[in-house]
Every structure is written in structure tokens, then in C-alpha cells.
Amino acid sequence: MAKARASRAIENAARRLGVVHVAGVDEVGRGCLAGPVVAAAVILHPDHHVAGVADSKLLSAGIRERLSSEIMASAVACAVSMVEADEIDRLNIHRASLRAMHLAVMALVPLPGLVLIDGFPIPQLVLAQRALVGGDRTVSAIAAASIVAKVHRDRLMRELHDRDPRYGFDQHKGYATAEHLAAVDRWGYSAAHRRTFRQRTLFSPSDTMRD
What we know:
Strand order of the largest sheet: 3-2-1-4-5
Largest sheet: 5 strands, mixed
CATH class of the domain at 9-150: Alpha Beta
Oligomer: single chain
Number of strands: 5
Shape: globular
Helix content: 40-55%
Strand content: 5-15%
CATH architecture of the domain at 9-150: 2-Layer Sandwich
């Protein structure tokens, strides 16, 4: 698979118009059966280029770990937020994802003058924003946020596995793999599982591993 090259073109254009801080935001875990949805917001430093930033789904785990560390060390600001399974059940996954992104953006210090979002606009965000379909593949700040969010969530899922190894969260990270579904069939749902996602067992694993 060829890697789509993420660019700073939109960020740079906004800065030329006088926007000092441009943030990218993305979430991960939307299509999972278990665990939180995690969002990250990142303001990349305009004078520090992090080589290799791309959509987190196109990178190996080792490269994501390295890039996440470099992004967090060099960024003007970086924030991570999450919404747990019980709140996902209460809100629904779409609203929970938007809430996680809203929380991450508003945790940034300084607050950005423009927020670039992968996918949908964030309701009630009191900041200028622009939603870009496929932004995690094309916009550096969003791609950086996708990397930070993915690395953070994968660590959380490994911690869940350490506490309850029956489901293999360290391997599938909560997605609906055959092994995960077999474990649910054997052990039932754990506290980490989203009860509103029981119908996802009707779909194939490939339907739920796209975020």
C-alpha cells in the first residue's frame, strides 16, 4: 500500500492569513467492541518538521511509537482525551467521538485559532474549525493527532489486557476479530465492552477495523 503524504499546506495557508496556532484533531477506537474512544489534538511547531508523519493506519506499531514521542516532544501543544465504554453506550459512538475530540481541543494550551478535523465538524466548539474527509491522510496536524491517539489507546488496551487477559485486548485492541468474538462467546461481555455494540457481531472483522 502506498503511503499518502500528509502535508502542511492548509496549516501554512492559515498562518499566512494570520492564524498563529493551527490544531489537528482525530479520534481512534470508533469501530471497536470494547475500550474507550480516544481523541488527540496537536498543534505542530511551524519550525519543527517531524519526518514520516502519515495516517496512523498506514504505519507499523513501532513507527507510530517513535513518531508519537517525537510529535509530543516538539509540538507547541498536545492533548489527549477519551470517552469510556459506559459513556459511549449512553451517548452513542458518534456523539462520544465528537465529545472526545471537543475535550481534547479545549485542553490545548494555548488554544488554537483554527481546528482541522478528520471527518465531521465538532458541535458547540467555540473556535474556528474546518472538517476534512480523509484529513488524516492529507493534513500533517491531523495525521499527527491520529498517531498520538492510536498510540495512547493501544497502551490503554494493553493495560486492560494485563487486568483481564481472557479477551486478548493486547492483540486486537478491542476490534471484532474472530479471536475476540470467540472470547466474547466463551466469557460474555466484560466491563470494558460497549453494550450498544452487540450487533457488531453480525459483521465481519474488516467492517470494524477502519479507524
